[in-house]
Amino acid sequence: MNFWKMNGAGNDFIILSNMDRQLPPSALPQLARILCTPHLSLGADGLMVVEPSAQADFKMLFFNSDGSVGEMCGNGARCICRYGYETGLSGVEPAVETTAGLVTGRRIDQRHYRIRLNDPTTVRLHETMEVEGKAYPLAYVELGNPGLPHAVVPFPGLAQADPQALFRLGRALRYHHAFPKGANVNFYEVTGPDQVLEKTYERGVEDFTLACGTGTGSVVTVLTLLEQVSGKDVQVTMDGGVLTVDVDREGPQVKNLWLTGPTNLVAKGEIFDEELPALR
After folding, report:
1. What is the C-alpha to C-alpha distance for residues 202 and 62, in angstroms, rounded to an integer?
2. How far is CA 125 from CA 135, 145, 152, in A?
3. What's the 3-state SS for the chain?
4. Whose CB among 6, 36, 138, 218 lies 3.0–4.6 Å from 150's, allowing a Cys bridge?
5. What is the pLDDT of residues 21-75, one digit of tens each?
6. pLDDT, tens digit, for every residue of 244-256?
7. Are 194 and 235 in contact (CB under 8 A)?
């Protein structure tokens, strides 16, 4: 079984081709759990499986490291666009079918790709959630349909936040009963004009990741509607690097949500993991 290993601003993925449909759908969640486990296998935040599509250049199936299905992944989509271009599945402007809808992209140069994220389908700007007796203001965003859920939480002094306390809060909000599907939890602080610091606790990874593309899109969506950023060339700094987000605002809504950032091709090879079950 051949694979690619890539990361987008530190958000890392294993990519498998299933264009010949040799991998049965029932095997993919377990495949993700095994292959994404650090130390015991390749290790990654998620698994992306490439399949044929009737409406796009190819289809991306995304699985979190715990084997759960992800509706979409922004950094993963940027990586998969590079994969599509370099394997000949698409041109410089790939179209990718995802569970949450069609995603289009553009090759900027060998390592940098720009993708149009799924438009927000749900935006609630002024929510409050209680955790351990303390109320936290936040916004709630879903991208695409079915929606990829994101909680957007202001957090002054984020750079100096205690990692363990932030982890506990992120986990509590991720599983909050107010989010029936759970939620990715994006803590943010505006650090300057169109400059944002962000840390994201990701559903399905169950920990903070080095970057979250759909999380940055959700944060900039909220901040644009709150008029705290311009929505143009907004620089979002995460532990894995800087991502750029652009949105168009139309009254109480945003559309044309673009994410730009680096990709890194780490390895190509063949998987021999002896813990994998027979796939047939």
Report:
1. 14
2. 15, 19, 9
3. CEEEEEEECCEEEEEEECCCCCCCHHHHHHHHHHHCCCCCCCCCCEEEEEECCCCCCEEEEEEECCCCEECCCHHHHHHHHHHHHHCCCCCCCCEEEECCEEEEEEECCCCEEEEECCCEEEEEEEEEEEECCEEEEEEEEEECCCCEEEEEEECCCHHHCCHHHHHHHHHHHHCCCCCCCCCEEEEEEEEECCEEEEEEEECCCCEEECCCHHHHHHHHHHHHHCCCCCCCCEEEEECCEEEEEEEEEECCEEEEEEEEEECEEEEEEECCCCCCCCCC
4. 218
5. 999 999 999 999 999 999 999 999 999 999 999 999 999 999 999 999 999 999 9
6. 999 999 988 899 9
7. yes
Mean pLDDT of the chain: 96
| pLDDT over 90 (residue 156) | yes
pTM above 0.85, yes or no: yes
Q: Which residues are catalytic?
A: 73, 212
